[in-house]
């Protein structure tokens, strides 16, 4: 009976705290207990299974899918967003909205943000961000050459400069092509002091926001001119490549696919991305499923923001 009496009192303390909403000090005074005793009893209530914690995810959230993604890919965090259509445009819009909210609530003062500026999904994120007043970043750094066809180059420049303005940061552009004609051309371009200044910040990036591409480039990247030839892309596929992050390719197991093409890319290498404190990937869509799965196995991504259709494909 002694134990039953003890549990009865613990149950009453738990009821007053969790159901009646009373503070520990108030409970202690009411029951003539010390506050330390009340605190111990509340912990004991959980240990004795008197108090059970239930998390009931709201409609439109997908905690089970997120949990399986984390477990299957050894992924620290995943966000799976609601989407009514399994269509690229709708998927990019929903991922962009969720990523904008995430950045707003997690941005730390003085962050140096690296951004892959040829991504339409990241551009959707930027469109949804509200101006930040409390936590402001230091720099927003382009992590892949932002020059290309003039008809679409404004996309890359606007993405970087607008994100910088919204986060109170200074933009650091990479005013060269993402893909050069030769290794020698790359070395010449990297010698430019403005280019060097931006690339020197790669090692200081604290938050990288990246897209994930399939071997076949997106429409935007193709129009920019920052792509390899059809023959070169075929060679990459034959070498086992399934996708890329900023034109750094990897296979289905997440192993980098190294070819001489790497020597023509001006941008952040995968090994440098590994040293970044927080890497958030925004990606979804049927065409990118294999690429996303490979990217998650690279081991550099800390959080994936994707849609429910893609999440289910990644699990299946």
UniProtKB/TrEMBL annotation:
Protein name, per record: DNA-binding transcriptional regulator LsrR (DeoR family)
Domain Sugar-binding residue range list: 62-315
Pfam families: Sugar-bind
Tree of life domain: Bacteria
SUPFAM superfamilies: Homeodomain-like, NagB/RpiA/CoA transferase-like
Keyword DNA-binding set for record: yes
Organism ancestry: Bacteria, Pseudomonadati, Pseudomonadota, Alphaproteobacteria, Hyphomicrobiales
GO MF terms, alphabetically ordered: carbohydrate binding; DNA binding
Gene3D superfamilies with a match to the protein in the record: 3.40.50.1360, Homeodomain-like (1.10.10.60)
Alphabetical list of InterPro entries matching this protein: Homeodomain-like_sf (IPR009057), NagB/RpiA_transferase-like (IPR037171), SorC_transcr_regulators (IPR051054), Sugar-bd_dom_put (IPR007324)
Family, per entry: Belongs to the SorC transcriptional regulatory family.
Protein source organism: Rhizobium lentis
Keywords in alphabetical order: DNA-binding, Transcription, Transcription regulation
